[in-house]
Prior knowledge:
It is built from 21 helices and three strands. The protein has helices at 4-17, 20-36, 41-50, 57-73, 77-90, 94-112, 116-133, 149-174, 179-215, 220-236, 243-258, 270-283, 300-313, 321-340, 353-389, 397-409, 411-414, 419-430, 433-445, 448-510, 526-547; strands at 240-241, 298-299, 346-347. Mean pLDDT is 77; it is low at 118-126, 210-215 and 515-525. The chain has a three-stranded antiparallel sheet. Helix 4 crosses helix 7 (116-133), helix 15 crosses helix 16 and helix 16 (397-409) packs across helix 20. The chain has 548 residues and is mostly helical. The chain has five domains: 4-38; 41-122, no CATH class; 137-215 and 525-548, no CATH class; 240-347, no CATH class; 370-510, no CATH class. Helix content is 76%, strand content 1%.
Amino acid sequence: xxxxxxxxxxxxxxxxxxxxxxxxxxxxxxxxxxxxxxxxxxxxxxxxxxxxxxxxxxxxxxxxxxxxxxxxxxxxxxxxxxxxxxxxxxxxxxxxxxxxxxxxxxxxxxxxxxxxxxxxxxxxxxxxxxxxxxxxxxxxxxxxxxxxxxxxxxxxxxxxxxxxxxxxxxxxxxxxxxxxxxxxxxxxxxxxxxxxxxxxxxxxxxxxxxxxxxxxxxxxxxxxxxxxxxxxxxxxxxxxxxxxxxxxxxxxxxxxxxxxxxxxxxxxxxxxxxxxxxxxxxxxxxxxxxxxxxxxxxxxxxxxxxxxxxxxxxxxxxxxxxxxxxxxxxxxxxxxxxxxxxxxxxxxxxxxxxxxxxxxxxxxxxxxxxxxxxxxxxxxxxxxxxxxxxxxxxxxxxxxxxxxxxxxxxxxxxxxxxxxxxxxxxxxxxxxxxxxxxxxxxxxxxxxxxxxxxxxxxxxxxxxxxxxxxxxxxxxxxxxxxxxxxxxxxxxxxxxxxxxxxxxxxxxxxxxxxxxxxxxxxxxxxxxxxxxxxxxxxxxxxxxxxxx
Length: 548
C-alpha cells in the first residue's frame, strides 16, 4: 500500500502532466488516508496534556519552561548534554537518546504554543548578557555616543554582524545544522539589525536628553550656589534705595505695627519693637542734634541683611507667639519695599537699578525654593526612617501625607509656598487615582469581607476543578491570596505617594511642575542597546529556523 508521501508525490506528477483524472484519484485517496490517520502527533501531545489532573499541569508547565530556557541558553546543546548523560547512565545509544530529548523539547514547545518563543529567546539573551558581563562582547567597543551617527551606524553593522555570526554558528552547531550557513545567516541579520537598533536608539536618546533637560531639577546645593551668585551680583552693583524709599518703608512699618491700637506692645513683643528701632536707625537715622528722623540711602545688601535678622531674631520658633506674629509683619513690610520700589528710587554703581533689583528678587526666589525643597526632603527622609523602624511593616505614605497636611494647616510652615506648590501638595495628600484605588483595594482585602470574598472565589474555582477537596484547597488559597493582593496594592499606593512627593520636590526646585513622564533609565544606555540587538537577532534566527 502506498504511503502518504508517495501519494502526494504522485499527485504532483499527475498535475504536472495534465492528468486531471488520476490527479483527482490521488487527491481523494490522500483525503481518505488523512481522515483515517487520527490526530497529528502534535495534537496528541496537546490532548495528553489536557487530560492531566489540574495539579499536574503547573508541574508540567514549569518543566517545559525550564527545558525551553535551557535550549535557548545553550543554543540547542542542552539536549545533547542530556542525551550524553542518559546514554552513559543507561548504557543506551547516544543517537537514540538525542532523538528522545529533542522530541521532548519539541513537545514542550507544542504545549507552550507561542509562549515557547519568548522562553527560548530569553535563554539566549541571558547567555549573551552573561558573556557581555565577562567582556565577551563587541557592543560599544569601537564607538560611543560622541561618534558621528554615520560612524555609529557603520560600526554597529560590523560589530553586530560579528556577534550575529557567532550566535548563528552556535545555534547551527547545537541543532546539527551547517555551521557555516548558520554563521552567514547570523552575520547578515546582525548587519541589518545593528544599524536599525542604533538609529532608533539614537532618536530615543535625543528625546530622552531633551526630556531630561525639560524635567531637570537642580539640587539644593545648586540652588544655593545660584542664590549666592545672584546676591554677589546685587552686592557688586552697589545698588542703594533712596532716602524717600526708606522713609516710605518706615512710615508704613510704624503706622501699621507701632502706632496701630492693636499693634505690637513692649510687654508682649519687645524683640519686635527693638528690631523696628534697629531698622529705623539704619533707614531713617536721627538728624544731628534733634529727635527728628529722615530717610537715608541704604544699600540693597544691608536692607536684605536686616530682613534676614528679623527672621532669625524675632520670628524664631523659640519666641512667643506675639513676637513671631509681629516679626512676620515687619518682614512683610520690608518685602513689599524690596519688591515694589520703583527703579527711579534706586541707584546703582555698576549696571542698572533694574538689573540690581532683578538680581535681588532672583536670589530671594532661589533661597525660597532651596528652603522648601530642603523641608520636603526632611519630611520624606523622616517618613522613610520611621517606616524602616516600624515593626508593623507600615510604609511611609501615610506619614508623608500627614506631615504635608500639617504644613498646609500651619501659616508659619507654609508661608514660603506659592499657590502652585500648595496645589501640588494638595494633590499628593488627596492621592492619585491609581494610588487611591490601590489603597482602597488593600484595605478591602485586609477586611473580613475581602478575605471572605477571596475565599469564596477560590472555593468556587477549586470545586469546579477538584470537587470537595479542590473547594477546600481553593478556599485556603483564596484566603492567603487576599493578603498577597493586599501587599501588592499597598506597595503600589506607597510608590504613588513617594513618587508624588518627589515630583513636588522637583517642581519646587525648578519653580514649575514637570511634564508627567518618568524615564527610569537612560534610553541610550549601551547595555540596553546590546540586549535589544541580541534579542532581535535571536528572534530572527528562531523564525528562520522555524521556516526551514
